[in-house]
Specification:
Blueprint (H helix, E strand, L loop, with lengths): L1 E2 H22 L8 H11 L14 E10 L6 E7 L12 E8 L3 E9 L4 E7 L5 E7 L5 E5 L35 E2 L3 E2 L5 E5 L2 E4 L2 E4 L1 E4 L4 E4 L4 E4 L16 E3 L4 E4 L4 E4 L5 E3 L3 E4 L2 E4 L4 E2 L1 E2 L4 E2 L4 E4 L2 E4 L3 E4 L3 E4 L4 E4 L5 E4 L4 E4 L4 E9 L3 E4 L2 E9 L5 E4 L2 E4 L8 E4 L4 E4 L2 E4 L1 E4 L3 E4 L4 E10 L4 E3 L7 E10 L8 E3 L2 E5 L18 E2 L6 E3 L8 E3 L11 E6 L14 E6 L6 E9 L6 E4 L2 E2 L4 H4 L19 E6 L4 H4 L2 E4 L4 E4 L14 E5 L11 H4 L3 H6 L16 H6 L10
Length: about 725
């Protein structure tokens, strides 16, 4: 058989000599003039100024080395895929399948899209347990190292280190009212304001109301069982010009103790102001219109010390617990909650907050920009925002962000600070940048929604012992950013939507295997500090092999319309035995045509093979839709090297894909091999009408190398998110 492009020059002289004879004895529609066809093709081709260096190649050969050092001695199935097949929504296609024994390395080659510079490698065990390792192209090849070979699987310790601590010593007289304490009650002062004046050790043991409290130096008020104190400025009091003192102030030597069965209700405008004093609670503390605040910006007084120690209940309405200095201890049995989901807890500067074992917190937002935040009980918050590099933060029990609590449930870590977790953390969404999450053996960090990564972020498990667990519903980069993100240590990562195969999501964190929600067995028990996690292994759904779409224009009589549907073939990459499936998918030419491979006819005349009359347009939008026809063949090596499929007519004139011939690059292509199950144009619709970046690629082969993906459904969201801009325009 004769290659069209190679035959042009060789046949030119002969055809010119015979042209008059051919014209007189051959119907016009059967006449073949290569020079005329080429010139007409240039005129009809929808793109001008073809890149003179164009080779029309979109398919390439990938080279990979996989090394496994798990220390199990098991033989694994290794699959190389275009996307993460463990994702719920994925477009993964199988490029290669190998078997590799633990402790060994294997190098191999396979067909892959030329523009694909990242892949996903699946390691599958005999029990169907499987993980996927993202990998990127470096120095012309892919290198995947699985396991260290040194990991200890037995003899580990379950002990969870608790390096962070807050030293607090409870005063002996915190809840011990001295025998010499005197009973007091409010009285009107010189301003006619009902005032409770505390001098020395005093107590109340019955319900009382006052408009303000005056705490003398070295004074201590005890509210005993049955006693209650409500501090509220009368709305009818004309003396409310006394705003400077419209708070309950505890300075360096003053203290208030609320004993079990007692209560303090503060309805002052500015709440409770601590500057070195102490507030002890075993009963009930309510701050209705104010706040517990060690910094009073409206008064200009900065509180740098003091303490709150709670074993009872604290309810704060509409304001904050703001800790810029001193210590706030929510001890065992203590409960902090808001009445209306409008309580923020803020730790800044030198403040220290400690939610101890068997203590409970439920607040609105939690903001940490400095100081110390330590949780060893149960802590619920609608959102958590961590900023400032000086903060020390550790969760040793249960932290729930937006779980069973109103709010967005977003956990934000956007500074170079370390969040230490030796317990259980669950949030609805996460936003991570620059900082680090450090987890101990058995610790869990779960994101029930999406986790968005910025740059320079690290999640680290322990160096020895059991894994820590990072469990996410979706992982993605925030606003197309992301670099230098890293996973370290013994860390199991579970995610059903782990990034996309969008170029905007690269570079991926590539150094850790990723599991799906049903790809590995996990059994983490429920405890007082953890909701645990349980999942079983489900046998995988087979990954379909990568398909290449071969499209042809019949140029044997006249230049085509460049809809590239005269003959459409779908060809799978060969399996390990060389088996490949060739599918005759469409016939958009009226002339009788055949499909050839290595000088063999694969289907017979294409219209007849698809059960239609010759001349019928099939599966192109202008004729009947019929079932495609499949044929299994054997291909030695790769499609790139040996996939020379072509079409030919009754005169044995051949049309090959452009990358398989050596024409002048300025000639339009008459055949293309396109990665994927490509959606070709309908009859009489030029390729540029469906794929607008085809023109860019034709004019400069180095840009828009993934132009053929623009119309595919899996890329629609990326395209839409970019406001209609092609996501690979820079490629």
């Amino acid at each position: 058989m004769i290659n069209l492009k190679q035959a042009i020059m060789k046949k030119s002289i002969f055809l010119l000599l015979c042209i008059s004879v051919l014209f007189s004895c051959t119907k016009k529609e059967d006449f073949f003039d290569p020079h005329h066809i080429d010139e007409e093709a240039k005129e009809n081709f929808p793109v001008e100024n073809i890149d003179p260096n164009h080779n029309w190649e979109m398919a390439g050969v990938g080279n990979m080395t996989v090394s496994i050092k798990d220390g199990t001695g098991e033989t694994y199935k290794i699959q190389v895929c275009t996307d993460n097949p463990l994702n719920i929504d994925n477009s993964a296609r199988l490029l290669s399948e190998q078997t590799i024994k633990d402790g060994e390395s294997k190098s191999f080659s396979f067909d892959m899209p030329l523009a694909q510079d990242y892949l996903f490698v699946v390691k599958e065990s005999a029990d169907y347990s499987r993980v996927v390792i993202p990998t990127v192209l470096e120095n012309g090849k892919f290198t995947v190292n699985i396991g260290s070979g040194t990991r200890s699987l037995r003899g580990f310790s379950d002990a969870q280190p608790k390096a962070l601590s807050i030293n607090y010593s409870l005063s002996n007289d915190a809840f011990n009212c001295p025998d010499n304490a005197k009973q007091i009650s409010p009285a009107k002062d010189a301003w006619e304001i009902m005032t409770l004046t505390v001098t020395g050790n005093c107590f109340i043991d019955s319900p009382m109301t006052c408009e303000r409290i005056t705490m003398e130096p070295n004074s201590h008020l005890y509210i005993k069982a049955g006693g209650s104190l409500t501090v509220e400025v009368s709305k009818g009091n004309s003396k409310q010009i006394y705003y400077y003192n419209d708070f309950l102030a505890l300075k360096s030597t003053e203290s208030i103790s609320i004993l079990a069965g007692g209560s303090l209700i503060c309805k002052t405008h500015r709440g409770i102001d601590l500057s070195g004093g102490n507030l002890y609670n075993q009963g009930e503390l309510k701050v209705i219109n104010g706040k517990i605040d060690n910094y009073a910006p409206t008064s200009g007084i900065i509180m740098s010390s003091g303490s709150v120690y709670n074993e009872g209940s604290i309810d704060v309405k509409k304001e904050d617990i703001s800790i810029s200095g001193g210590q706030f201890i929510n001890a065992a049995g203590g409960k902090i909650s808001t009445m209306d989901n409008d309580l923020d807890l803020k730790v800044t500067s030198k403040g220290e907050f400690h939610n101890q074992e068997d203590a409970f917190v439920a607040v609105d937002d939690t903001e940490i920009s400095g100081g110390v935040w330590l949780n060893e009980g149960e802590y619920k918050t609608t959102e958590m925002d961590i900023t400032g590099s000086s903060a020390k933060i550790q969760n040793n029990c249960k932290l729930l962000v937006g779980i069973d609590h109103q709010g967005d449930g977003e956990f934000e870590l956007n500074s170079s600070v370390t969040f230490e977790n030796s317990g259980y953390v669950e949030c609805k969404e996460a936003e991570w940048g620059q900082g680090r999450i450090l987890m101990t053996s058995g610790a869990i960090f779960k994101v029930s929604g999406k986790a968005e990564y910025y740059s320079n972020f690290t999640i680290e498990g322990p160096t020895t012992g059991k894994d820590a667990y990072l469990i996410m519903e979706q992982a993605k980069y925030k606003e197309s950013s992301g670099s230098n993100n890293e996973y370290k240590g013994n860390l199991t990562i579970v995610c059903d939507n782990y990034f996309s195969n969008s170029k905007a999501d690269l570079p991926l964190p590539i150094n850790k295997p990723i599991a799906g929600s049903n790809s590995i067995k996990i059994e983490l028990p429920t405890t007082e500090c953890s909701d645990g996690h349980h999942q079983e292994v489900v046998p995988p759904t087979p990954v379909a092999r990568q398909v290449y779409t071969y499209v042809f224009e019949d140029m044997t009589r006249e230049a085509g319309d460049f809809d590239f549907n005269d003959v459409v073939l779908k060809v799978t990459v060969p399996d390990e035995s060389g088996k490949a499936t060739v599918t005759l998918f469409a016939a958009g030419a009226t002339k009788n045509l055949w499909v050839g491979y290595k000088n063999n006819d694969l289907f017979g005349e294409v219209h007849t093979a698809m059960g239609c009359e010759p001349g019928t347009l099939i599966n192109t939008g202008s004729g009947p839709n019929v079932a495609p026809v499949e044929k299994e063949i054997t291909i030695a090596g790769t499609l790139k090297q040996n996939g020379d499929f072509y079409i030919y007519d009754e005169n044995k004139i051949e049309i090959h894909i452009a990358s398989m011939v050596s024409p002048e690059s300025t000639y339009p292509p008459y055949g293309l091999c396109i990665p994927g199950d490509w959606e070709f144009p309908k009859e009489r619709n030029k390729i540029t009408g469906l794929y607008r970046y085809f023109e860019n690629w034709v004019q400069d082969y180095t840009v828009c190398t993934r132009w053929y993906e623009e119309h595919m459904q899996e890329f629609k969201s990326t395209w839409d998110a970019a406001n209609g801009e092609y996501p690979y325009a820079d490629k």
